[in-house]
């Protein structure tokens, strides 16, 4: 492909986007252009119209609007509004696209956002399931998901909801209400605490084992998320000789600018390495060397790398940074154990086989992870101390049943090379909005004024909200059996094991499920068990914009607005998504249109429901959303050129305050209020060598004693961590003792578990390992019903051609993918870039169950992921074993041809 270059010989953004789009299209289909699934093989050029060619002479206005579904790119959108309808969407064009001030350009998901807002499956008005009636006697829960619906008024919907809440809270107590979602949204923040609390889950979906112990180990938690402040910013990445993407695919999972940052690093001379089960589109774009590694075997791979680094250092020297080990770590061997160690076991003796009799050689690891021995040895030398290496991990490497050692194994390898606190050197996760550009925020929005429910209402009985926390991995089965094991919860902010406790069996009696701002039923493991839980409740409420899986299994559905539709969208959530931008950018988006149909804002719904529950909504929501949105602008700050001083961002005059009729502060900033509102974002300019750069752990590495890691007991990186081991073992859910150092453990759904006889090579009933990549069709589970994206990204099951041939299936064939938890129907897409024995189904499809077979005809991958009690506080998504067989019915409709699910019985 001929590439257009700029004056400096660099690849232009337009050429980059074209090349990336071509690679993405090929890899999204997962097969050659002539395959059945990819299409007809037509190669005629397309004359696509780009935003710059759009005729703006028609009457209308461009408005900056949010792209709110947390894919990770955090890009800007602008909507062209004509008579209350968005007719066109474009992306960031506020300035030239340069290295210093890159444009925050949207991916296909963001560009299809208007098809998400103006969608056929938007819930237009309140609805009630026909066969359900309030009171707890006419539930007919078995009809949830298949019943018809009837339209009701807002007054009736809110009256029924309030009545049911009072009845269930009075009869069963607050623990009978399960909030099916994340606790920072309005319902659990503003409504349920006033009722006395609610039940929720313990653990974390996204971060896996990176959440549970990163702080204990000394890994960065400054952002309230594991590791993402532990790598350097995008300009420092240009100094790396080698950049390793371990399990990462930013072109899909963090669409937009992150992939461009990595391209800039390649353009600057960095060599890329990709480690994972599939040579993905990001690796292809960056011409990365592929080191194959099976799902859930990353720890074995890293242990062998550590072993080889030690061997090569002994033979050749200059591989291991012993000065770094001595100054910045504890616990590498028995002579370096921390003061709180209760055992002389250590990672060095474990690697050498002195503890279990098995040396962690490349040969040992290769039999497990499938990585060629020579690749392990090559990699161990490549990441030695004298090379500037940035190693970036995906959180997905810890989303499995035996992944508790993953963060510590990554830390150990990074410490052996001394890849911390120096230009071009980094070792840590990089994900979503931090991808490729980590560091402290250079521009931040102001805090929106608010009042806590404990201040708004006297005598609030449940200031802490959630009163029951069911372990995440066993959530649905525990609800269905009526009891759970209370093992505490992880420390979400500091990522430590401090909240984990000794197990205690407790009853649970869920009678009401409330869903808001979440695709919880789709995104948790064991979806079929989740449907059973929904069907067993007396009352299920869904507040939603679309007819999602959770809405389909509800009794009352309340239509809520999107962030494009006027003030009042759940600002606690929207504030979070606004702040989930890269460190140089802050968004100040507007709403584009009035609320559609009868949809109401989350704030208004909660306000009026509180009035019916016996509280005063004005007490809980005393400030207008216009005022709160203005607070974000009035209180916004940026880091000045000295890299330290925080200054007001926006110039606001008294005349402007009088014009707006809002409360605020007169101040001098660097951008005028009207200009900021027009742009919808502010981007802090950068340049190489400026004072705004970020190198993670720099102060700690320079002087560990003066700058200790805040949550590790020793203040250093803990290669032996007694706190980690104690926290895990305290929960009492593991079949074997968790060690204080990184070690490989075989858990349910691991590679060895796919055999009935591993040593003899005899495969079991479910011989294939499933992984569930993020995908450009969706952001998590968002966008799944958007027709444009269904056409562009077909959501197949990816297979190696050898595995397909063994099962007599070809590209485009419909197959049944089954596990011990359930079955899904998908079309096959064969890829030689996928390891044999591994299959992939993209994450996030909304469940559509075939009532005759019980299979998911929409490809909801979490139907396949089983409950694993040993996973405890996190889901073992990548620890799922499956088998695939050709399906008897080959005339099924592809996703792009299958209509979206709409509420039956409702006349449009």
Automatic annotation (TrEMBL):
<comment type="similarity">
    <text>Belongs to the prokaryotic molybdopterin-containing oxidoreductase family.</text>
</comment>
<keyword id="KW-0560">Oxidoreductase</keyword>
<dbReference type="InterPro" id="IPR006655">
    <property type="entry name" value="Mopterin_OxRdtase_prok_CS"/>
</dbReference>
<feature type="domain" description="4Fe-4S Mo/W bis-MGD-type">
    <location>
        <begin position="60"/>
        <end position="121"/>
    </location>
</feature>
<dbReference type="InterPro" id="IPR006311">
    <property type="entry name" value="TAT_signal"/>
</dbReference>
<dbReference type="Pfam" id="PF01568">
    <property type="entry name" value="Molydop_binding"/>
</dbReference>
<dbReference type="InterPro" id="IPR009010">
    <property type="entry name" value="Asp_de-COase-like_dom_sf"/>
</dbReference>
<dbReference type="InterPro" id="IPR006657">
    <property type="entry name" value="MoPterin_dinucl-bd_dom"/>
</dbReference>
<keyword id="KW-0732">Signal</keyword>
<dbReference type="Pfam" id="PF04879">
    <property type="entry name" value="Molybdop_Fe4S4"/>
</dbReference>
<dbReference type="Pfam" id="PF00384">
    <property type="entry name" value="Molybdopterin"/>
</dbReference>
<dbReference type="InterPro" id="IPR006963">
    <property type="entry name" value="Mopterin_OxRdtase_4Fe-4S_dom"/>
</dbReference>
<keyword id="KW-0411">Iron-sulfur</keyword>
<dbReference type="InterPro" id="IPR050612">
    <property type="entry name" value="Prok_Mopterin_Oxidored"/>
</dbReference>
<keyword id="KW-0479">Metal-binding</keyword>
<keyword id="KW-0408">Iron</keyword>
<dbReference type="InterPro" id="IPR006656">
    <property type="entry name" value="Mopterin_OxRdtase"/>
</dbReference>
<protein>
    <submittedName>
        <fullName>Molybdopterin-dependent oxidoreductase</fullName>
    </submittedName>
</protein>
<keyword id="KW-0500">Molybdenum</keyword>
């Amino acid at each position: 492909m001929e590439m257009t270059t700029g004056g400096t010989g660099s690849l232009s953004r337009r050429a980059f986007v074209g090349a990336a789009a071509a690679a993405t299209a090929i890899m999204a289909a997962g097969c050659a252009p002539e395959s059945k699934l990819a299409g007809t093989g037509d190669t005629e050029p397309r004359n696509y119209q780009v935003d710059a060619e759009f005729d703006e002479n028609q009457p209308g206005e461009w408005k900056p609007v949010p792209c709110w579904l947390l894919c990770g790119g955090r890009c800007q959108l602008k909507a062209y509004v004509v008579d209350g309808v968005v007719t066109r969407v474009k992306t960031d064009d506020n300035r030239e696209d340069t290295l210093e001030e890159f444009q925050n350009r949207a991916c296909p998901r963001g560009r299809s956002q208007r098809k998400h807002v103006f969608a056929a499956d938007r819930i237009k008005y309140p609805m009630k399931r026909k066969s359900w009636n309030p009171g707890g006697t006419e539930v007919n829960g078995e009809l949830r998901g298949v019943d018809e619906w009837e339209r009701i008024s807002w007054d009736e919907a809110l009256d029924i909801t309030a009545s049911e809440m009072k009845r269930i809270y009075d009869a069963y107590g607050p623990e009978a209400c399960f909030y099916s979602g994340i606790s920072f949204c309005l319902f659990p923040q503003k409504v349920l605490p006033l009722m006395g609390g609610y039940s929720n889950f313990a653990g974390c979906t996204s971060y896996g084992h990176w959440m549970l112990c990163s702080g204990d180990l000394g890994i960065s938690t400054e952002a309230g998320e594991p590791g993402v402040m532990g790598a350097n910013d995008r300009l420092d990445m240009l100094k790396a000789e080698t950049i390793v993407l371990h399990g990462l695919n930013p072109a899909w999972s963090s669409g937009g600018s992150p992939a461009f940052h990595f391209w800039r690093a390649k353009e600057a001379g960095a060599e890329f390495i990709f480690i994972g089960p599939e040579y993905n589109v990001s690796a292809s774009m960056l011409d990365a060397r592929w080191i194959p590694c099976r799902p859930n075997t990353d720890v074995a791979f890293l242990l062998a790398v550590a072993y080889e680094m030690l061997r090569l250092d002994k033979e050749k020297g200059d591989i291991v940074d012993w000065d770094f080990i001595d100054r910045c770590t504890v616990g590498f061997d028995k002579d370096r154990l921390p003061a709180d160690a209760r055992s002389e076991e250590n990672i060095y003796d474990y690697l050498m086989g002195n503890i279990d009799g098995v040396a962690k050689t490349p040969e040992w690891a290769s039999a497990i992870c499938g990585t060629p021995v020579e690749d392990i040895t090559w990699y161990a030398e490549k990441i030695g101390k004298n090379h500037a290496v940035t190693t970036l991990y995906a959180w997905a490497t810890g989303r499995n049943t035996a992944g508790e050692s993953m963060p510590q194994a990554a830390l150990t390898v990074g410490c052996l090379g001394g890849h911390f606190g120096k230009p071009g050197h980094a070792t840590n996760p990089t994900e979503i909005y931090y991808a490729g550009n980590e560091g402290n925020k250079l521009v931040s929005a102001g805090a929106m004024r608010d009042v806590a429910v404990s201040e708004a209402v006297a005598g609030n009985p449940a200031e802490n909200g959630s009163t029951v926390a069911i372990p995440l991995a066993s959530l649905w089965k525990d609800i269905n059996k009526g009891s759970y094991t209370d093992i505490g919860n992880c420390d979400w902010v500091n990522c430590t094991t401090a909240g984990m406790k000794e197990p205690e069996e407790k009853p649970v009696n869920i009678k009401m499920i409330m869903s808001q701002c979440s695709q919880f039923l789709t995104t948790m493991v064991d979806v079929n068990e989740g449907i059973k839980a929904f069907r067993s409740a007396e009352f299920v409420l869904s507040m939603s914009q679309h007819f999602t899986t959770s809405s389909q299994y509800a009794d009352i559905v309340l239509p809520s607005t999107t962030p494009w539709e006027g003030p009042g969208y759940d600002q606690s959530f929207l504030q979070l998504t606004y702040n989930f931008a890269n460190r140089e950018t802050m968004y100040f988006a507007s709403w584009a249109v009035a609320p559609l149909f009868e949809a109401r804002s989350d704030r208004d719904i909660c306000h009026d429901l509180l009035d019916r529950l016996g509280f005063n909504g004005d007490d809980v929501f005393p400030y207008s959303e216009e005022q709160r949105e203005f607070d974000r602008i009035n209180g916004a700050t940026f880091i000045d050129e000295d890299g330290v001083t925080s200054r007001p961002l926006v110039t606001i005059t008294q005349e402007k305050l009088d014009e707006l009729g809002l409360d605020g502060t007169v101040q001098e900033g660097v951008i005028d209020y009207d200009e900021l509102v027009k742009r919808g974002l502010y981007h802090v300019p950068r340049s190489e060598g400026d004072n705004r750069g970020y190198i993670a752990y720099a102060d700690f590495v320079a002087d560990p004693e003066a700058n200790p890691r805040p949550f590790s007991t020793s203040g250093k990186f803990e290669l032996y961590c007694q706190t980690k081991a104690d926290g895990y073992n305290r929960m009492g859910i593991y079949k074997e003792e968790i060690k204080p150092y990184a070690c490989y453990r075989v858990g349910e759904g691991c590679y060895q578990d796919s055999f009935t006889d591993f040593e003899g090579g005899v495969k079991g009933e479910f011989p294939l390992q499933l992984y569930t990549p993020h995908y450009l069709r969706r952001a998590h589970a968002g966008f799944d019903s958007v027709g444009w994206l269904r056409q562009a990204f077909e959501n197949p099951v990816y297979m190696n051609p050898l595995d397909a041939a063994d099962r007599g299936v070809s590209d485009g064939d419909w197959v049944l993918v089954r596990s011990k938890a359930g079955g899904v129907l998908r079309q096959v897409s064969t890829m030689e870039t996928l390891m044999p024995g591994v299959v992939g189904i993209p994450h996030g499809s909304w469940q559509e169950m075939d009532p005759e077979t019980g299979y998911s005809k929409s490809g909801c991958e979490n139907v396949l992921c089983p409950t694993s009690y040993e996973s405890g506080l996190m889901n073992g998504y990548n620890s799922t074993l499956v088998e695939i067989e050709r399906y008897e019915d080959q005339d099924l409709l592809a996703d792009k041809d299958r209509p979206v699910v709409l509420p039956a019985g409702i006349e449009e």
